[in-house]
Amino acid sequence: MILVTGGAGFIGSNFVLDWLAQHDEPVINLDKLTYAGNLSNLESIQQDGRHTFVHGDIGDRSLVSSLLEKHKIRAIVHFAAESHVDRSILGPGEFITTNVNGTFSLLEAARAYWSALPDKEKADFRFLHVSTDEVYGSLGPNDAPFSETTPYAPNSPYSASKAAADHLVRAYHHTYGLPTLTTNCSNNYGPYHFPEKLIPLMIANALGGKPLPIYGDGQNVRDWLYVGDHCAAIRRVLESGTTGETYNIGGWNEKTNLEVVHTLCDILDQLAPKTGSYRDQITYVKDRPGHDRRYAIDARKVERELGWKPAETFDTGIRKTVQWYLDHQEWVRGVLSGDYLKWVEKNYGQREQGVAA
Ligand code: NAD
Ligand code: TYD
Is the pTM for the entire model greater than 0.85? Predict the structure, then answer.
């Protein structure tokens, strides 16, 4: 059995759905259900006996230890985090609590459990930490893309908290021999992406007739990867990655924010035509403080050593994504109205927190 943390969030829920579509191995899904966690992402596997949802915090050491013991976990795939840069600027505290202290607590629980395993299980155990390319800082226009040996230079409270977690994971391998793997991925997009992030926000605002707010001059560059490709890369690293190593995961899709928004508007003009173009809704707003100019990933190591490369191009992935949002406007409405949070209250209000199903 594997333990997934943060499996009700954007990437985690895609990972759990893809995992169960491809494996029979059950999943324990530990998620605190912050504003970013949404159990309706997992509606299609509600009746699936291979999926057990546990409402709890990665920082709850006794809960995590009991889950590891009870379910004889053979691998942890750690997604749980505060993940939005803008929120980290307005309130960095939660980022330290979850991304740094939470990861530390999870590592401690994993180390205690792993140390007591018999030799074979001990050798096979894995702790896969899902991280970001933002730990490497910002590139100039002609700099080479980030490789696994690029020095860390995080610029936002979010990326600094992820960098701290990456260092702890590295240290637990180096010092204690914990069999860790770290993936540093570029910006993801796809189904179940919370509409505070660029792509889902722009689609939701476009369809809602609202302004499409571009920070600064719109020339910041991100390297976009379809979420299903990221999940496939994580499965590959979990299966065959060398412990103690880090793997950069990216889509070879560098785009300026303005290019991304233009593409979204053009696809919406075709799939959901209105009078005039969605491009008319574009507005420029004050830039994000400390806004990193360019991210780009050199994903050659994971391709060379583990044979992974993305299946989607930006054109195919973004078209699928826009279509998904058009087909799931109820999901977007639920998120924007906060209705999904009421479900949590209803379902968990009466229960003891952190009790595994
Ligand atoms: P998300 O914000 O959509 O989801 C995070 C999930 O973690 C939510 O379900 C939330 O409820 C849960 N969570 C938060 N704090 C928790 C805690 N203390 N205990 C248990 N659960 C908790 O994030 P995402 O975009 O799916 O990102 C997942 C991971 O991937 C993060 O670690 C992020 O740093 C990393 N990452 C994201 C991207 C991206 O483009 N979104 C790119 C590279 C790496
Ligand atoms: P975001 O999705 O927040 O991801 P990250 O900051 O982790 O890369 O933002 C992607 C890019 O889009 C980033 O350069 C900031 C920019 N952006 C806007 O221009 N407008 C917006 O409303 C948002 C949310 C982001």
Answer: yes
